[in-house]
Amino acid sequence: MVTITKNINSNTSSNKNTLDSAMLKVRIEHHLSHTLGDIIINNVIDKQCTETKKAYWHATSLALNEVITEKLNQSQLRQSQSACKSVNYLSLEYLMGRLLSNNLHNLDLYTITEKVLKSLGFELADLCEQGADLALGNGGLGRLAACFLDSLATLDYNAMGYGIHYQHGLFKQHFADGHQVETPDMWREFGSPWEICRPESTQLIPLYGHIEEVPQADGSTETKWTAGKTLKGVPYDIPIVGYNSSTVNALRLWQCRADSAFDWDKFNNGDYLMALEQQVHAEIVSKVLYPNDEHAAGQELRFIQQYFFCACSVRDIIKRYQAQYGALTPAQSEHFSSKVAIQLNDTHPTIAILELMRLLLDEFQFQWQDAWQLARKVFAYTNHTLLPEALEKWPVKLFERVLPRHLTILYRINEAFLNEEVNAMWPNNDNMRRALSIIDEGGEGNERKVRMAHLCVIASHKVNGVAQVHSDLVKSDLFPEFNQLWPKKLTNVTNGITPRRWLKACNPLLSALLDSEINADWAKELTQLSLLSNKADNADFQQQFMQIKHQNKVALTKEIKALTGITVSPDAIFDVQIKRLHEYKRQHLNLLHIIALYRRLLADPAMEMYPQVFIFGAKAAPGYKLAKDIIFAINKVADKINNDTRIHDKLKVVFLPNYRVSLAEKIIPAADVSEQISTAGKEASGTGNMKLALNGAVTIGTLDGANIEIAEEVGNDNIFICGLTVDEVKALDQNGYNPTDYYHNNEEIKACLDWLDSDYFTPGHAGALSPIKESLLAGGDPYKVLADFQSYSDAQNKLNVAYQDKKRWARMAILNTALMGKFNSDRSIEDYIANIWQLTPVSAN
């Protein structure tokens, strides 16, 4: 084992916590006996019992939350008194993970709590495993939002996150004969110690119904919306603890309930189920993240879900403003926009624009121009994708039925935009009007649809991409006309990650080593890690760094065995691809190479190859058939390879079930190789690439998203770049890409794809894996898997050889950790502050 001596205090803030060991122990025991009602009798309870551990985890969390809630109240009072501008971050996803360890580290209470629990007979690390992940997201979008909230609090900015209080989050994933099976994720079945219900901030949200034009005394008309149904939004606040900071902010999550509990008359008449119908229909809105929208009912539910959370959030933002500054009137327009910023995290919260306009017009008596000017000063929009299918479009008919008033506002926005702004730039140009209109008139089946991304760009004062190459493509490919119309509106903010969770908390061995080498708080000033560059060639430091990596790999082998039954060696290369399952992320490129390696090993068992374990973690959307087919194929290929003694364990494949934040925290510290192989131009940024590199994994990847900027930071000698560039992908498309050319001209590709048609990997079921081959040939291989295969395979060969040079690999791994300073989410937030939000920190110092 590596032993590290720490030579600095991890918290140099003047906001030191006054909670000592004795006080913490009293609080934990108080919650055990009073709040939870457990009777603790020394030497009688079974301390290895799961129920006992859960009770102590719960009590510890509640004791910690007393400190957090006090800091939250102080922060809100301080922010109110300062009258500083606040940012309101609207996101449909937040991948928060578990909170106990992260909060303890951020409060500098981890060591104290560890000692207290040890005195009670428990290991803090074990208790941290008892908490459920706050499963409020799916992938990078939600994890980014969580990192940003952490950084906003750490940097002492006045911020509120807004989202949905999902009962089930996404889903729990397990495998049955290799197939993904989804079950509800009951992350808060018995409540969560971290959340605080705020019934005083409940909102009533109208929808459906009809509108009418009501004549006014002056001869004008006023639009009146009579709603057909009302939903009730009940907020739950989750405190967001800043690291080494005086600030605790809040993430406010909306739970949907019916306006009335049940129909008393129906209940009295014995129609018990129908009496509860209204409540059941309301609860569905916040039941689960991303209901399947392949059918009309699912599409309407998802649309209502987005509107519900936006409407609750906008009303709450206004209510908080009024509580601090008084009534919102047209005269207060400039003041409101100077105190309130609203950031739309992708297109999911777009309806917030229309809801703010509706409230200003219908409830606060704003004139149109005043309302529209205010909205355009308040909103900003982050684009996360160039994929057309991910840029939301909602049928006009859905708006007409569910939000008729919002549709009239949208029409007016569109009409004014086209007639005044588009026509001024391109007079009488119908083609440009069609291209820029918020309404897509010629959609699939000639169904008219609302382009939500267009509305975001038109209404926002700033639009940002999330990596330099992505932002450049947003300007040149996605929104070129908008960029011509407003050349200063589109900008870039490269994503970042919080090093507090993604190194300090999840990789304590490496964190301790960094503490011993860097006489500064690197978890707050991540650029301090660059000091490690001088140690990259130091033999002793290399030995310590790689020994820590080995210990993390040993820990992951135990997790792999427990979850899958598969035995892997910690001495092998751990090659990791962990991210949402999507064709553009190209897990099937990884799979095709694995099949090729297997084929080579069978042809020559003595082939020189350092043992390699390919580790996957991913969930496929329930309605995404090909993504599920890829999961099935990886699992069936893994079954065959892992049980084939002919290849002498040189190759292993592991697909870990139910990928989530807490599992990522175990995988990432153990990874040797980070797979970032999306088709160039398709991945907006990526943040998994940053987390893995920060923990000393070497990237194999395409020149896509933030990979480009990672390569610039670490240098080409410390990364393995492969595949087509963005321009080469475009040229291939323009010249007519034919994947069958690669199939016929590359014998290895042909043999591997033909193998999928057989029953070799699925005995007795020939063709079970054929959908993968069909997608790459008959399906046109839209993400250029076959075009990039040879380059990727060659890069993998170089990687395998490089790993065998232990000094070279250690140097590469150390430099990847040392040179990740740019990718701190604190830097991302400061970029937002400077270029978009213009906030001022509110610190107790």
What does this structure look like?
The chain is α/β, with parallel strands linked by helices and 845 residues long. It folds into 2 domains: 144-158 and 195-495, Rossmann fold; 501-514 and 540-826, Rossmann fold. The chain has 34 helices and 25 strands. Strands 1, 4, 7, 8, 11, 12, 13, 14, 18 and 19 form a 10-stranded mixed sheet that branches. The protein has a 6-stranded parallel sheet with strand order 22-21-20-23-24-25, with helices on both faces. It has a 3-stranded antiparallel sheet with strand order 15-17-16. Helix 11 (333-339) runs parallel beside helix 13 and helix 23 (587-603) runs parallel beside helix 24. The longest helix has 33 residues, at 50-82. The two termini are 40 Å apart. Residues 1-14 have low confidence and may be disordered.
